[in-house]
Specification:
Elements: H1 7-13, E1 14-16, E2 39-41, E3 45-52, E4 61-67, E5 72-74, E6 83-88, E7 92-100, E8 113-119, E9 122-132, H2 146-157, E10 162-166, E11 171-174, E12 180-181, H3 190-196, E13 206-211, E14 213-217, E15 220-221, E16 224-227, E17 230-234, H4 239-249, H5 293-297, E18 316-321, E19 331-336
Parallel strand pairs: 2-8, 9-10, 9-11, 9-13, 12-14, 13-17
Antiparallel strand pairs: 1-3, 3-6, 4-7, 5-6, 7-8, 14-15, 16-17, 18-19
Helix pairs in contact: 2-4
The structure holds zinc ion.
Zinc ion is lined by residues 244, 248, 254, 304.
Length: 351
């Protein structure tokens, strides 16, 4: 006789991970790729995983392709167990669903699911400019750091099938005044834009400019700044910063776990995740019951100044810049365009 389990109880022993929730197990693969990604390249393989608690034999956990069998396939036909490998066979959307033998799900509840997309592999040419003093010394970045930085960013951007490849040799801009930038949100800043205009890829590459400092005002400094003329990065910026700025270039916005004035009391984001707050990344809602919205935000690549590396599918509710989303605008609560739906890879280039 099979047990009849209601989804509320199931929820206490299944943590089904959407691409966002996956981040709690993300980056645990030796190659550092996120588990349960919202996207991955055609011809590659992604890992999807659920955690099932209780005395459930692994073979009783069964995965199904609900749509997109022409886009994904289970590696070696293996579709059982808490973790499966899914091959991207052709570009297009897919939906996976997880069932547990004997588990009866009654409406309006649904089984845990993951939606995503297989993307065509894309190589983005990157032109690298390193600023040095006028005398040609003290580069903002050592040459040997460039390749690891691009590789690390490409590992994160794998979720969108993007690989960054250096285009031509490293070039040096010997101008002491361009090492330290101030007032960088000023869109007619003469010093910053003189640097960004000193070279022009004419849309054939994305330009990276390495400098010592990107100061907004006071002690507010940035690690990276996207403009249509190129991406400026400080020498100590990491791969996550580069990947974040590349996705800005593609059209996505920032999100934050807290507003301009710190964390209000009570914190409006210290509440459980909900479908209304993660509309395209809900996955049936099988999150850890203690999962709060601000914790989800901290896993996202588009969190400003954060550490997360996950690209969700759609919008996520949190603090965002008002108006056109520009970094200089004050923050307000709302749905931020942080997901795959807002990424246009054709826009990743500099002028
Ligand atoms: Zn940003």
């Amino acid at each position: 006789m099979l047990p009849k389990l209601n989804p509320v109880i199931i929820r206490t022993f299944i943590i089904a991970l959407t691409c966002i929730a996956a981040a709690q197990t993300a980056l645990t693969q030796s190659i550092g790729r996120p588990v349960n990604p919202s996207g991955f390249p055609a011809g590659d393989t992604a890992t999807f995983r659920v955690s099932v608690f209780g005395n459930i034999p692994p073979e009783h956990i069964e995965w199904k392709i609900i749509y997109g069998p022409e886009h994904v396939a289970f590696k070696d036909g293996n579709n059982t167990g808490p973790e499966v490998k899914v091959q991207g066979t052709a570009p297009g959307a897919f939906k996976l669903e997880v069932d547990v033998k004997g588990w009866i799900v009654t409406p309006p509840h649904v089984r845990p699911f993951f939606t995503g997309e297989v993307y065509p592999s894309l190589t983005i040419p990157v032109a690298v400019f390193i600023v040095r003093t006028t005398g040609g010394i003290n580069p903002a970045l050592q040459d040997s750091k460039v390749e690891p930085l691009l590789e690390g960013a490409s590992r994160i951007l794998w979720q969108r099938a993007i690989t960054l490849v250096q285009n031509g040799p490293i070039r040096y801009l010997d101008n002491t005044a361009w090492l330290n930038h101030t007032d960088v949100f000023n869109t007619v800043n003469p010093n910053l834009y003189a640097m960004l205009d000193s070279t022009n890829s004419m849309g054939q590459a994305v330009e990276l400019y390495f400098v010592d400092r990107l100061n907004v005002s006071g002690d507010h400094n940035l690690a990276g700044l996207y403009t249509s003329k190129g991406i400026a990065l400080i020498g100590s910026a990491n791969s996550r910063t580069l990947a974040h700025e590349i996705i800005h270039n593609a059209g996505a916005e920032d999100i934050y776990a807290q507003g301009d004035n710190g964390i209000p009391d009570p914190d409006p984001l210290a509440a459980p995740v909900s479908e209304a707050w993660l509309p395209l990344d809900w996955g049936g809602g099988y999150y850890n019951p203690e999962q709060l919205q601000f914790g989800i935000i901290s896993r996202l690549l588009m969190e400003g100044g954060g550490y997360g590396e996950v690209i969700p599918r759609g919008t996520v509710y949190g603090w965002k810049h008002s108006g056109n989303g520009g970094g200089a605008n004050p923050k307000e609560l709302g749905h931020s365009k942080v997901g795959q739906d807002f990424i246009n890879v054709n826009n990743i280039k500099s002028y």
